[in-house]
Write a structure and sequence with these properties.
Layout lengths: L2 E6 L8 E6 L2 E6 L8 E4 L4 E3 L2 E6 L18 H11 L5 H17 L2 E9 L6 H13 L4 E7 L10 H11 L3 E2 L9 H18 L2 E6 L9 H11 L6 E5 L2 H4 L2 H14 L2 E4 L1 H7 L15 H7 L3 E3 L16 H11 L5 H9 L3 H7 L14 E4 L4 H7 L3 E6 L2 E5 L5 E2 L8 E2 L11
Parallel strand pairs: 1-4, 6-7, 7-8, 8-9, 9-10, 10-11, 11-12, 12-13
Antiparallel strand pairs: 1-2, 2-3, 5-14, 14-15, 15-16, 17-18
Bound molecules: fe (ii) ion.
Amino acid sequence: MDLIFRRANLPDGRTNIDVGVEGKTIAAVAKNLPATAAVEVDAKGKLLSPPFVDSHFHLDAALSLGLPRLNRSGTLLEGIALWGELKPQLTHEAVAARALAYCDMAVTQGLLAIRSHVDVCDDRLLAVEALLQVKKEVADYLDLQLVAFPQDGLYRFPNAEKNLLRALDLGVDVVGGIPHFERTMVDGAASVKRLCEIAAERGLLVDMHCDESDDPQSRHIETLAAETKRLGLHNRVTGSHLTSMHSMDNYYVSKLIPLIVDSGVAAVANPLINVTLQGRHDTYPKRRGLTRVPELMMAGVPVAFGHDCVMDPWYSFGSGDMLEVAHMGVHVCQMTSLAAIQTCYDAVTVNAAQILHLDKYGIAEGNWADLVLLQAADPFEAIRLKATRLMVVRRGKIIARSAERTAELDLPGRPGNVSLNFVPGSVTG
Ligand code: FE2
């Protein structure tokens, strides 16, 4: 074999596992693998994971913080207005350079697949062309899936539909939308219908910003689920954000969630961003604004967590670390049992991979040899510590390494070297 990881823990709870790689794929997953390899890595009970997957991002805006100014109110609407100020100043080179810099950052964090929305409400389609170029440039080491996103509204922006169709013709993968930003509820519902029809005609996936609002009357998810059923798009449609569900009447939600399940629509929540953006019109109590993640999961809806923004008009922080996203998800959704923490890890790995329709993802024979070795024993510890990604493997090749995180302590009578890690396997039950 070419590469073997020995004595690894896997995210599904298996321990002391060897993972053998031949060429670009995983050749064996077993205990005490009777084989040798040119490169052998002793994981010593550390977590070997499939790569992190970001199911919701905006690569055209990433790392633009401060251009041309900061978001003073911290609201979604000022963020959109600020992006509108920046848009005419964008250049192809600057968008591509920032996107590539972010992809470098992502790879070091073991983030090897990103679904990024790209704004089509710019008649030049400058960001679309820049990100299509970046998609090609990074293809060997990162799966970049692009969503044609009419940021200013399909019906609110004059050329939005024409531009969206042009973007799809150029090779953008997924149909996006923003029904809650249209001028009226009727326009919002009409935009959902039209966009789903475009996806059905072209055989494409759909991922809409849907009901990113604190208004409990924002019910476009209902139309999205109904259109998904009508057009036979089962398992091909994602509702992103869905924050109005946080504020909806419980009786209505008891009818809505079964419709979402029935339609096969997936959900993406963005914990870092929505806990920051939502509830801005509230005094006290202030709503957290995240969608009903545990309830959707419990009902059987595939739910992933997205990063959404890094250093852009909507959010000033972030570093491409999906464990930071999962960490915030645990807190905001109060998913603190061991089982719930595990599902938060799934929300930035397997669930997100399912939503992106990634092929040959996961640690199993025949799948791509895409792996991340973490300085943690299990998903619990990985999220707790936002653990260092010691080694990142893409298609069988080691493409990034980080040194173990340790600290030296200079206190009399205390050990000199301090580790934040527990003994592997010490947290159970
Ligand atoms: Fe977004």
